[in-house]
Design a protein that fits this description.
The chain is α/β, with parallel strands linked by helices. It has two domains: 3-119, Response regulator (Rossmann fold, 3-Layer(aba) Sandwich); 132-209, Arc Repressor Mutant, subunit A. It has helices at residues 11-23, 35-45, 61-71, 86-94, 107-119, 126-139, 155-165, 170-177, 181-195, 200-209, and strands at residues 3-7, 27-32, 49-53, 76-81, 99-102. The protein has a five-stranded parallel beta sheet with strand order 2-1-3-4-5, with helices on both faces. The longest helix is centred in the last third of the chain and has 15 residues, at 181-195. The protein is globular and about 50 Å long.
Length: 221
Amino acid sequence: MIRVLVVDDQALVRAGVTLLLRTAGEDVVGEAADGHEAVHLAESLRPDVILMDLRMPRLDGIEATRRILTARPGTHVVMLTTFDDDTEVYGALQAGAVGYLLKDDAPEAMIDAVRKAARGEPLLAPSVLARVVDRAVRAHAADTAEPAPPTGLTPREREVLALIGAGHSNTEIGKALHMGVTTVKSHVAAITEKLGLRNRIQAAVVAHRLGLIDDDFRPIN
């Protein structure tokens, strides 16, 4: 079972999400009503996945995510929001969230997102990933220097990085490179550690800035 912490300032939302996940067989280890409580519970309960409301009193989901991942970088945070707002979503992903869900998404989407997050799989569709990466690259447009190739990556890790940048899952990467999913996960972990990254989204940004993928988010041959 996946250990999940549910964070939302609305008690009814927390209760509904908790019931949904427990019915699906996952282990909801706690609930938090604001960002401060989320930070505290994340430290004491050590969940695998946190479903984090974006807008909350006292401490919002973006800052709570930043604090949690600074203390526990292995945690997977999925943002919950009412609005598909590029600015807020980008801020959450920049803070280290692995993806986001709209609160009016289908219940199955939430269960799927929790399980994908726990496996380290991408949660963003390629079109959404493209928007995120484009914004990140434009945010660094003032830096005219050509990014240096990452040091320490093996040729195989560079191939995996390119496929992450193209939005592929671990299973898809394994099929493309003829390796098992466990091996792919090892490569992804090595890439994020070597480059000092928090998640696949940040890895996709690096892949794009290094020119490892083309404008259609397909790996360069």
